[in-house]
């Protein structure tokens, strides 16, 4: 008799929109791993008991998304160095006694830029728009790539200031409001605000971008987001959406759980085809 497949879940609230079950199912087919991966909504204020119930059902691991990444960090009994540094957990591995937490967003973004778009971040000046959980999750990985400097600009300037102070030992970080972005052009501009989710354009100065700049929006959509449209209109060298980041961060989680690195480009293409057909 064949053994029942190992169970994994992505948990969040809401969660119905998640593409993670599609991604991990494609990874499992491709690498011939026996596993089942489902989306599970957990009630707000019930994260810890929700996770424990799923553990009792035999869960071997979790991906954690909005709004539970901070609570996942609190729940874990051991943390990777990255998770400890960022204060955020999006990947939990379950053992008999332990909840082991890691964060894969930063590696997902860097892998997408490097492997899928051939972008070397070394000595680059980076502008990051936004100062939420996703920015905290990716900042350390930019410094691992030896960027020259990072400027964080956020609508609520105090959050940009807090992040720049928290990570100041990693390298050169400045901050400002969205209205006070320095007038020099940046090599790489990452939109890590959720503005594109509501199709909202940011009011950015044309001086921060030029013909060699690379624009990246963590949000993905069937059509270019308002930010990517703006970057294109300014003549940016490349404009890239966050679909690749989504698949790459999932691939890092999959490798943590299963010890096998899945092929990502074919999965990104499958998701892109589905997105365009929807
Ligand atoms: P948070 O809710 O923690 O932060 C949201 C950020 O967006 C804040 O900095 C907020 O500014 C800013 N913001 C929201 N609306 C506007 C607006 N209209 N104008 C200007 N700024 C705005 O979210 P996360 O950091 O977790 O995620 C950010 C985005 O990245 C989300 O859209 C998420 O979907 C995406 N993401 C994509 C991933 C991928 O794999 N592709 C992975 C992780 C995240 P303020 O502080 O002033 O409120």
Adjacency order of strands in the biggest sheet: 2-1-3-5-6-4
Number of strands: 12
Radius of gyration: 19 Å
Question: What's the shape?
Answer: globular
Binned, the helix content reads 25-40%
Q: Note the quaternary state here.
A: single chain
State the secondary-structure class: alpha/beta
Q: Strand-residue fraction?
A: 15-25%
Unreliable spans are: none
Question: Could you tell me which ligands this complex binds, including any ions or cofactors?
Answer: NADPH dihydro-nicotinamide-adenine-dinucleotide phosphate
Order of helices and strands: EHEHEHEHEEHEHEHEEEHEHH
Largest sheet: 6 strands, mixed
Number of helices: 10
Mean pLDDT: 96
- Please report the distance between the alpha carbons of the first and last residues: 40 Å
What does this structure look like?
By secondary structure, the protein is of the alpha/beta class. It is 38% helix and 21% strand. The chain contains ten helices and twelve strands. It has helices at 20-31, 47-56, 69-75, 81-86, 105-116, 133-144, 157-166, 226-233, 243-258, 265-277, and strands at 6-12, 35-41, 59-64, 78-79, 91-94, 99-102, 125-129, 149-153, 172-176, 188-191, 214-217, 238-241. The strands form two sheets. Strands 2-1-3-5-6-4 form a six-stranded mixed β-sheet, sandwiched between helices. Helix 1 crosses helix 9, helix 5 packs across helix 6 and helix 5 crosses helix 9. The longest helix has 16 residues, at 243-258. The radius of gyration is 19 Å and the shape is globular. The mean pLDDT is 96. NADPH dihydro-nicotinamide-adenine-dinucleotide phosphate is lined by residues 66, 105, 108, 130-135, 154-156, 159, 192-195, 197, 200, 202, 218-219, 242, 245-246, 249.
